[in-house]
Each structure stands twice: as structure tokens, then as C-alpha cells.
Amino acid sequence: MAIIVQHIFSQERAILLGTGYGTFTGIMPSLWWGKVSPRVESGSLGVVSICDREGNIKWVRSIDVKVIEVDGKPVNEYAISKNTFSNELKSNCSACNMPLKLGISKCSHCHFEN
Ligand SMILES: [Zn+2]
């Protein structure tokens, strides 16, 4: 049986194969100190692997897709809650949109408590 996901903007459908967690790091030389004191930004985001009808596998951000069907049954037919886990881990600050460190809700850039 399969889990069917749908891309929120394009409405394209695909089979969900698995889930993962992606991390990134960006290093830019600072304006005054160059590579001696570079500006480093890093973060993480949830990703899922999907496949299309031809079997092509792609990784997409989990926030860009939603599950619409599990084992041939639409998700709204299951006895599950609506809008669960309101205290989920955020990957970016709500105030300045900078990446949050994993498991830390206070932004290290603007000190906003997410
Ligand atoms: Zn912030």
C-alpha cells in the first residue's frame, strides 16, 4: 500500500517513499576580515523522498507537500485530529526568518522566542 502526497502549489501527485532531515551550511567571507572571520549560516529542514509515475525519485521539502491518501483511503476519512502538533520544531525564526539551531527555539540573530 502507498502514501500519496500532493504538491501544495503545482497540485502534482506522487508516492511518498521516505522521510529525512536535510542540513545546510553557507560560508561567506566577511566584509572587513575576509576569510579570517567568515559569516557562517546554517540550518536544517525536513525533506521527503517521492517518486513519479516513471519511477523518478526526488527529494522535496516536507512543508511543500501534504499527504492526501494512505492505503487507498483519503486522510480525512481517518479518525485523526485536525491541525495537530502546534508546537512542532520550527526550522526558521518567525521574526527574522534566519535558520534556528536544531532543538533551540530562541533565535541567535534577533533573540526572538519562537
Ligand atoms: Zn530571529
Keywords:
binds zinc ion, elongated, 0% helix, 114 residues, six-stranded antiparallel beta sheet, mainly beta
Structural class, by secondary structure, is mainly beta
Bound molecules: zinc ion
* Total strand segments: 6
Indicate the overall shape. elongated
* Relative strand content: over 45%
| Uncertain runs | none
Please tell me how large the radius of gyration is: 18 Å
Number of helices: 0
Helical amount among residues, as a percent range? under 10%
Strand order of the largest sheet: 4-3-2-1-5-6
Order of helices and strands: EEEEEE
Mean pLDDT: 84
* Termini separation: 38 Å
How would you sum up this structure in a few lines?
The chain is mainly beta. The protein is 0% helix and 47% strand.
